Amino acid sequence: MPTIYRLLTEDDTSAFCHKVSLALSKGWMLHGAPSIAFDPVRGVMRCAQGVTKEIAAAYHPGMKLGEQ
Fold it and tell me: For the chain, which terminus, N or C, has the lower number of CB atoms within 10 Å?
């Protein structure tokens, strides 16, 4: 079974937590520690979290990862 990877990003608000929680509820697993960085252009903090998931289908670059 192939393992696929996504990097979830969002402003540092509850929307980021909800995005990660939704991925976890769909079977994705946390991959590494979350990151946070300041976006000087927009003047906001941004968060990122990698997630992985094993899938039954073969991986191909055109697949929509969020729909797996």
Answer: N
